[in-house]
Design brief:
single chain, mainly alpha, 5 helices, globular
Amino acid sequence: MKIKDPDIMEFQLIFEGALSKATRFDRQEKMRIRKKIRDELFSLLTLEQPTPTGIMNRWEERLEDLFEAVPYGLKDELLNMLIEKAKFPTL
């Protein structure tokens, strides 16, 4: 599985949507979390052979505060997207 720029943008849109729905954070916290999301997404470009579960575990660990504040379905949605990307890589 190789993550490409269009995949990164797709994941960023999902994270942004989830973050905008989270009412628990103030403006500064949202800015801090956005930076963490960007850092995590762009670090995916450097991983050699990432697996969907490996990526998800990394996100759950490093973006814990975001996942605690958003609905449970976000994790499932992201994992399903990662699995689909692994099955049908973009050209």
